[in-house]
Design goal:
- The protein is an all-alpha fold.
- The protein has helices spanning 14-29, 36-47, 53-62, 69-94, 105-109, 111-130, 139-158, 167-191, 197-224, 227-230, 236-239, 245-253, 255-262, 270-282, 285-305, 311-324; strands at residues 98-99, 102-103.
- The chain has a two-stranded antiparallel ribbon with strand order 1-2.
- A hairpin with a 2-residue loop joins β1 and β2 (102-103).
- The protein is globular and about 60 Å long.
- The termini are far apart.
- InterPro entries: Isoprenoid_synthase_dom_sf (IPR008949), Polyprenyl_synt (IPR000092), Polyprenyl_synt_CS (IPR033749).
- Its cofactor is Mg(2+).
Length: 328
């Protein structure tokens, strides 16, 4: 079984790193599957290379107020387990062979086992929350977040191969798919630490803006990085009809060149995908998407600037800038 490999970004923040290691340990302790191979695969996925951003933002937002750190670690672990479950299910839908630089669970064991593994992780989420069920203010809002998260995923699936995809539709999708979970992470951290309504509302806004910028930047990587660098196959979303900001912007500039290639759909060759990649860059799609990500980044940083003076504020400002601020 793999040792925990936290992203090097946390080496700069030892207090956060210590709590994130506790998050991973708690997640591992709650994986009690009879099938040792599947159990090992799930634990390896948890411990292998994810940035752990969502639980980190939960922990940081909770640090502004005196609170039970064991409780906050459990809530952060529940947030990360929920995220992991969604990744397992995403890989089934996308037939993805890899995740975080290793074989995906569905690729190793088949889709049936992967569905079970993802569902099991949802059970783990409720198990973690049950310890504090009498003391959770945020449970009443959690179901609303989950509705929107699932709605975003379903909207993305129903919009596949939509050649008339707009930026507005794309933004609604990624709000549900990614930003809502970041918003949940920051909301839980604030609310469960006893923060005021105003603080919690600000925390939610910060989380949503971070999530929006993060997803746009992640979509840009399909056109900027290799599959080795990002830990998953590049251009797979394109072949599967999932169109993101760089392509949508490029389609407004060069539709006649790009559309015939998109109509190849799942039959698109590597050479044709490379053509789309080059056309997107030439049409300024990547640059326009970076400007969009920067807008959400700036909104997130402005929100963080409004937080009260605290060491956690300094970490939030520095961390978010490192992750998202890409003015080049």
């Amino acid at each position: 079984m793999a040792q925990t490999q936290l992203h090097p970004i946390w080496d700069t923040y030892p207090e956060v790193k210590t709590e994130l290691l506790a998050v991973v340990d708690l997640m591992e302790a709650n994986i009690n599957l009879a099938d040792s191979d599947v159990k090992t695969a799930i634990i390896d996925m948890i411990k292998h290379g994810g940035k752990m951003l969502r639980p980190a933002y939960t922990l940081l937002m909770s640090a502004f107020h005196e609170t039970d750190r064991k409780k906050m670690i459990a809530l952060a672990a529940a947030i990360e387990t929920l995220h992991t479950a969604s990744l397992v299910h995403d890989d089934i839908i996308d037939d993805a062979p890899t995740r975080r630089h290793q074989q995906s669970i569905q690729h190793q064991f088949g889709k049936d086992v992967a569905v079970y593994a993802g569902d099991y992780l949802f059970v783990v989420v409720f198990r973690m929350l049950s310890t504090y069920h009498n003391d959770l203010k945020s449970v009443q809002v959690d179901t609303g977040y989950l509705d929107r998260i699932l709605g975003g995923e379903l909207q993305q699936k129903s919009s596949r191969y939509n050649y008339e995809m707009t930026i507005d539709t794309y933004l609604k999708q990624i709000n549900g798919k990614t930003a809502e979970l970041f918003g949940l992470a920051t909301t839980v951290g604030a609310m469960e630490s006893g923060a005021s309504t105003a603080f919690t509302s600000l925390a939610k806004s910060i989380g949503v803006n971070i999530g929006m910028a993060f997803q746009i930047m992640d979509d840009i990587l399909d056109y900027d990085e290799s599959s080795v660098q990002i830990g998953k196959p590049t251009m797979e979303d394109l072949r599967q009809g999932v169109y993101s900001a760089p392509l949508i912007y490029a389609m407004t500039v060069s539709p006649t060149e790009i559309l015939p290639l998109l109509k190849q759909e799942a039959a698109m060759t590597d050479a044709q995908a490379q053509q789309v990649d080059e056309l997107v860059k030439t049409a300024g799609g990547v640059m326009s998407a970076k400007a969009l990500a920067q807008k959400y980044t700036d909104d997130a940083l402005r929100g963080i600037a409004q937080l009260p003076t605290h060491p956690a504020k300094d970490v939030l400002l520095e961390l978010t800038t490192k992750l998202l601020d890409r003015r080049d």
